[in-house]
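sry for the spam today, last one i promise. struct tokens for design, 51 residues
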């Protein structure tokens, strides 16, 4: 089962297909990561917490 590399939360195979970088089997951040986000192909700390 795929997991988020940042927080370890379960992510679906469909989520991985859409959001994982080419060649990776999992994602670097997921919607459950309130402190991180994807930006321009990178993962960075969020400037403010998501609600």
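last one done:
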């Amino acid at each position: 089962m795929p997991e988020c590399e940042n927080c370890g939360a379960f992510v679906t195979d469909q989520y991985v297909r859409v959001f994982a970088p080419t060649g990776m089997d999992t994602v670097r951040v997921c919607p459950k990561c309130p402190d991180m986000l994807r930006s321009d192909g990178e993962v960075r700390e969020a400037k403010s917490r998501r609600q």
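The mean pLDDT is 80. ok im logging off now
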